[in-house]
Design goal:
Mean pLDDT: 88
GO molecular function: 5S rRNA binding; structural constituent of ribosome
Keywords: Ribonucleoprotein, Ribosomal protein, RNA-binding, rRNA-binding
Helix content: 10-25%
Number of domains: 2
CATH architecture of the largest domain: Beta Barrel
Number of strands: 13
Strand content: 35-45%
Pfam family, one: Ribosomal_TL5_C
Organism: Halalkalibacter suaedae
Low-confidence stretches: 202-207
Shape: elongated
CATH class of the largest domain: Mainly Beta
Largest sheet: 6 strands, mixed, barrel
Strand order of the largest sheet: 1-3-2-6-5-4
Family: Belongs to the bacterial ribosomal protein bL25 family. CTC subfamily.
CATH superfamily of the largest domain: Ribosomal Protein L25, Chain P
Radius of gyration: 27 Å
């Protein structure tokens, strides 16, 4: 059974009304798509959190607006208060299940790098990969195995294309992860070998 999230229309869009919505345990949001007009709505914050945990941030679910119509949607944008860790605003995008869309998929590193064991540092450079596919085919994440990476090795987009079942729109040469050499030790300043700086004009003063 498809996941359903209930939503209520928002008539008053003033800032005071928006704050009141948040205080009452709801999150202001907007529903839009290529075939529908933009519609302000609100959803219960606890129910929304349960939905995200169930389907993931790239998952599809039904948004039931006032029990009148269900829209097949995905989360297009999510604003969170970094201090209070509360949801501030949500963008719900109604998808056409027969048309491909662009989406960003998180990258998850797996395995343990031999280069890291040897003292190197695993540098995760790309945390998301851009894909284009049908909404139902969007992966929750893309796993990249670093088990074969030694110091100086890297994994680029070209290396994972054949391992992913959807079209990746990033360039082949973009680097996802690399293993860097240990940082060189910095020599302390003021060694004994350093020559004493010559004071220009000192001889002239003595004359």
């Amino acid at each position: 059974m498809a996941t359903v999230l209930k939503a209520n229309p928002r008539e008053d869009l003033k800032g005071s009304a928006t704050r009141k919505i948040r205080k009452s345990g709801y999150v202001p949001a907007v529903l839009y798509g290529n075939k529908i007009e933009s519609q302000p709505v609100s959803v219960e914050s606890v129910d929304f959190l349960k939905t995200v945990r169930e389907v993931g941030k790239n998952g599809l679910f039904s948004l039931d607006v006032s029990g009148k119509k269900k829209h097949q949607v995905m989360i297009h944008d999510l604003q969170i208060d970094p201090i209070k860790n509360e949801y501030l605003h949500i963008d719900f995008f109604e998808v056409d299940m027969t048309s491909e869309i662009d989406a960003s998929v998180p990258v998850h590193l797996t395995g343990e790098s031999p280069g890291e064991k040897a003292g190197g540092m695993v540098s995760h450079l790309m945390y998301e990969v851009a894909v284009k596919c049908l909404p139902s085919d969007i992966p929750e994440e893309i796993s990249v195995d670093v088990s074969d990476l030694n110091i100086g090795d890297s994994i680029q987009i070209a290396d994972i294309r054949s391992k992913v079942n959807v079209q990746i729109t990033n360039e082949d040469e973009e680097t996802i992860v690399t293993v860097q050499a240990p940082a060189a030790e910095v020599e302390p300043e003021g060694t004994e070998d350093e020559a004493e700086p010559e004071v220009v004009g000192e001889a002239e003063k003595e004359e």
